[in-house]
C-alpha cells in the first residue's frame, strides 16, 4: 500500500474509533491514560453510553484537541440525529468532499452551524474553539444566548467573541465551566476530555428540551421564489436573505407554505398573517424585526414591525450590531446598536423612548474609538450611518493621566502627589481599573450605575465624598469634599462607617473607637486585653452579629471584621434586653419603637437606644456608667420629655416608658 494511502487509512480509522454509532457497551471501557485526569468520570460515562471509543493502544488521549467535524458528529449523535439522505444543503466551501460533509450539512440545516460565521470556510479538521462549542450546544438545545455580562476573569476576551451570549448561556445552563483561575478562554481549542464533560452535561439536559427539528416540506408545488420587503423584491438565489435566530443569521435557501404556515429551509415554521411569533429577517445589513408574513402569488410579502441595523461597516471593517455599544446623551448604559429602531433619518427609538439625534447626542464605540451619529442614510445597498469621531463617551479603567484636576472644596490636590487612588461604592472597594466613568460623570461598577454623590474617592488613605464629575476634552475634573465619615471599618469586605458599629461584651457596649485591636483576634478595652471569644458580639445599624474574626489593617489604617448575623445563642447576647420600646404620654402610646429620632441624654450628649443597655427597669448603662432612668430626658424628634415611670414586660421583652413634657 502506498505510504500516503496508508496514512489516510490510519487517520480514518482513528476518526471512526472516535465516532462509532451509539451502541451501549456491556463492558466498561478501560483507558490507561485517564486515571488521574480531572475528566475521568465524564470520559467513562460518555464512553459507557457508546458515544466515544479509545485508541487501539487502549489510550483515550484526553488532552488531544477535537476538531470541528468530530465535535459536530458527536453532538448530532447525542441528539439522536441521523443526517438526511440528501446533502444538498448549501454548506461550506471546504467541506464538499469531507468525510463528515453529511453531518456538517445536517448541522447547518438545523441552525447548529451557521455558514455566514465562517466566511473563509469551516476548516473542519481544525480544533473547535470553546466559544464555538458553547454556541453549537446552546443552539442544539433550542436555547437563546444570554447577553448579560459573565463573571469570568477574562470577560474582556469573551467580549471579543461573536459567541459571548452563548458562552454566558452555556455557563448558566451548566454545560461549560471556567478554569481554576477563573477564566473561560473562549479562543482556546476544546480537548477530548473537555468535550466529554460538556456533552455529558448536555445529555443531562436532553429530555427536558427538544433539539432543533427538521420538518418536511409539505409540497414542492407550494414553493415560494422571492420575498418582498417594503416594496423591494428579493429573489432567492440572487440576494441572500437571512433568518435571524437570536444572534445567528441563517441563510434562507427555500420557502414554502402549507396549512397557514411558512416553512423556511424546511426547518423553521411561522404563521401567516399573525401579529405574534413572527421572525426577524436580514437583507444586506438591515434587520427587519417581527415581520408579519403573507403570500401573494409566488412571493412572500413581509411587513416589518421595526427596522434595525444588523451590522455596520466603517473604515474597511465590518461590525456586528449586537456587539457595538450605543450611548444616549453621553451616558453609559446597557444598550447596543442592535437595540436601536431606526425611525427616520434623524430619529431612533431605544428602550421605548424616541431620540432626535440632532438634539440628543447619540454615539457608538467601534473598537477603542467613539463616533457620534449625525444622520441615518438609506439606499439600495442597505443603511449606513453618518459618523464623526468624538471624544470618549466612557473611560473604562481610570488612569491618573485621565484626570485634569481634583478639587476638595476650593482647594486643588496635586496630581503628582497621588500614590494611591480607589473608590468606595455601595460599601465595596473598586480600584481605578474596575470602574467605568462616562462623559456625564456617572460611574459604572459591577454592572450597576451610580451618580457621583454615591461615590467616595480614597486618595493616599484620605476619604473624600464626590459631589460632581465633569468631562472636558476627554479628561475628568473631580469635585469633592472631605468625607463626613471620620473613621471607617471593613466588615465582611465592605467599608462601613465605624460610628455605626458597637462592640458588645457581656452587658457592656463600646463604640469602635473605644477599643484597640492589638493583633489578630486580640482586643484591648479599658486597659485590659481579651482574646476574641463568645462573650463578644457587635451591633451594626441595630442588628446583632457574632464576631468571627477581627484584625487591624495597617496599610489601610482601619479595623477589619468578619461577622455573621446572630441567632441569639452567643453568651454575650445582652440577656434580657428589651427588644421593643413603647413610649407613653398621658397614658396613650406616643411613639412605637426606638427609631433613630428617639434619643436619651447621657454622658453629656444625646444617645440612641442602640448605644445603651438596661441593668433593670429603672437603670441604664452608657459607656460603663450607670444612670437612673427615672428623671432622665428623652427626645423624640425635636420634643424633649422627662421619664416619670417605666415597666419592663420580661415575657414579651417590651420596655414601656412613661413620659411628660419637660
UniProtKB/TrEMBL annotation:
Residues annotated as domain SLH: 26-89, 90-148, 149-213
Coiled-coil annotated residue ranges, if any: none
Keywords, ordered alphabetically: Repeat, Signal
Keyword Repeat found: yes
Record carries keyword Signal: yes
Pfam families (alphabetical): SLH
Signal peptide bounds: 1-26
InterPro entries attached to this UniProt entry: Cell_Envelope_Struct_Comp, SLH_dom
PANTHER family: OUTER MEMBRANE PROTEIN ALPHA-RELATED (PTHR43308), S-LAYER PROTEIN _ PEPTIDOGLYCAN ENDO-BETA-N-ACETYLGLUCOSAMINIDASE (PTHR43308:SF5)
Protein name: Nucleoside phosphorylase
Species per Swiss-Prot/TrEMBL record: Moorella thermoacetica Y72
Amino acid at each position: 500500500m502506498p505510504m500516503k494511502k496508508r496514512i489516510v487509512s490510519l487517520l480514518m480509522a482513528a476518526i471512526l474509533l472516535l465516532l462509532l454509532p451509539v451502541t451501549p457497551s456491556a463492558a466498561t471501557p478501560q483507558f490507561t491514560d485517564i486515571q488521574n485526569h480531572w475528566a475521568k468520570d465524564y470520559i467513562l460515562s460518555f464512553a459507557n453510553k457508546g458515544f466515544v471509543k479509545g485508541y487501539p493502544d487502549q489510550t483515550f488521549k484526553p488532552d488531544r484537541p477535537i476538531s470541528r467535524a468530530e465535535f459536530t458528529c458527536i453532538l448530532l449523535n447525542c441528539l439522536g440525529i441521523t443526517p438526511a439522505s440528501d446533502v444538498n444543503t448549501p454548506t461550506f466551501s471546504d467541506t464538499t468532499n469531507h468525510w463528515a460533509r453529511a453531518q456538517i450539512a445536517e448541522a447547518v440545516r438545523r441552525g447548529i452551524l451557521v455558514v455566514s460565521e465562517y466566511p473563509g470556510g469551516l476548516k473542519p479538521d481544525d480544533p473547535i474553539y470553546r466559544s464555538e462549542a458553547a454556541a453549537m450546544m446552546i443552539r442544539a438545545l433550542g436555547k437563546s444566548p444570554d447577553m448579560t455580562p459573565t463573571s469570568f476573569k477574562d470577560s474582556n476576551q469573551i467580549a471579543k467573541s461573536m459567541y459571548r451570549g452563548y458562552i454566558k448561556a452555556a455557563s448558566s445552563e451548566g454545560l461549560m465551566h471556567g478554569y481554576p483561575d477563573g477564566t473561560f478562554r473562549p479562543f482556546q481549542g476544546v480537548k477530548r476530555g473537555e468535550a466529554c464533560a460538556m456533552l455529558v452535561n448536555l445529555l443531562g439536559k436532553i429530555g427536558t428540551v427538544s433539539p432543533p427539528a427538521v420538518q418536511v416540506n409539505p409540497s414542492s408545488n407550494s414553493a415560494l421564489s422571492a420575498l418582498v420587503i417594503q416594496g423591494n423584491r428579493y429573489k432567492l438565489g440572487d440576494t441572500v436573505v437571512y433568518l435571524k435566530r437570536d444572534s445567528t443569521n441563517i441563510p434562507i435557501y427555500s420557502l414554502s407554505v402549507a396549512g397557514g404556515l411558512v416553512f423556511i429551509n424546511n426547518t423553521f415554521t411561522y404563521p401567516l398573517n399573525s401579529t405574534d411569533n413572527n421572525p426577524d429577517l436580514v437583507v444586506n445589513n438591515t434587520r427587519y424585526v417581527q415581520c408579519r408574513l403573507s403570500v401573494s402569488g409566488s412571493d412572500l410579502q413581509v411587513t416589518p414591525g421595526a427596522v434595525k441595523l444588523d451590522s455596520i461597516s466603517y473604515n474597511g471593517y465590518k461590525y456586528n450590531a449586537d456587539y457595538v455599544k450605543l450611548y444616549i446623551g453621553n451616558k453609559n448604559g446597557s444598550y447596543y446598536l442592535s437595540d436601536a429602531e431606526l425611525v427616520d433619518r434623524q430619529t431612533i427609538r431605544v428602550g421605548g423612548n424616541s431620540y432626535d439625534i440632532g438634539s440628543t447626542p447619540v454615539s457608538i464605540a467601534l473598537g477603542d474609538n467613539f463616533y457620534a451619529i449625525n444622520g441615518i442614510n438609506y439606499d439600495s445597498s442597505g443603511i449606513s450611518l453618518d459618523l464623526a469621531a468624538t471624544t470618549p463617551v466612557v473611560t473604562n479603567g481610570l488612569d491618573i493621566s485621565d484626570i485634569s484636576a481634583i478639587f476638595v472644596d476650593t482647594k486643588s490636590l496635586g496630581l503628582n502627589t497621588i500614590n494611591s487612588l480607589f473608590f468606595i461604592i455601595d460599601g465595596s472597594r473598586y480600584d481605578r481599573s474596575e470602574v467605568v466613568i462616562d462623559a456625564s460623570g456617572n460611574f459604572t461598577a459591577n454592572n450597576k450605575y451610580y451618580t457621583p454623590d454615591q461615590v467616595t474617592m480614597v486618595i493616599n488613605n484620605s476619604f473624600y465624598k464626590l459631589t460632581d464629575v465633569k468631562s472636558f476634552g476627554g479628561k475628568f475634573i473631580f469635585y469633592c469634599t472631605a468625607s463626613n465619615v471620620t473613621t471607617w471599618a471593613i466588615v465582611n469586605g465592605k467599608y462601613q462607617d465605624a460610628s455605626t458599629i458597637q462592640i458588645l461584651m457581656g452587658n457592656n457596649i463600646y463604640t469602635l473607637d473605644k477599643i484597640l485591636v492589638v493583633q489578630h483576634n486580640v482586643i484591648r478595652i479599658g486597659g485590659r486585653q481579651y482574646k476574641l471569644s463568645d462573650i463578644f458580639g457587635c451591633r451594626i445599624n441595630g442588628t446583632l452579629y457574632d464576631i468571627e474574626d477581627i484584625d487591624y489593617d495597617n496599610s489601610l489604617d482601619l479595623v477589619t471584621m468578619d461577622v455573621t448575623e446572630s441567632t441569639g445563642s452567643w453568651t454575650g447576647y445582652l440577656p434580657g434586653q428589651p427588644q421593643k420600646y413603647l413610649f407613653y404620654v398621658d397614658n396613650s402610646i406616643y411613639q412605637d419603637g426606638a427609631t433613630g429620632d428617639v434619643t436619651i441624654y447621657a454622658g453629656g450628649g444625646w444617645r440612641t437606644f442602640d448605644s445603651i443597655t438596661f441593668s433593670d427597669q429603672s437603670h441604664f448603662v452608657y459607656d460603663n456608667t450607670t444612670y437612673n432612668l427615672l428623671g432622665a430626658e428623652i427626645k423624640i424628634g425635636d420634643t424633649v420629655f422627662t421619664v416619670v415611670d417605666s415597666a419592663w414586660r420580661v415575657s414579651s421583652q417590651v420596655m414601656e416608658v412613661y413620659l411628660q413634657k419637660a
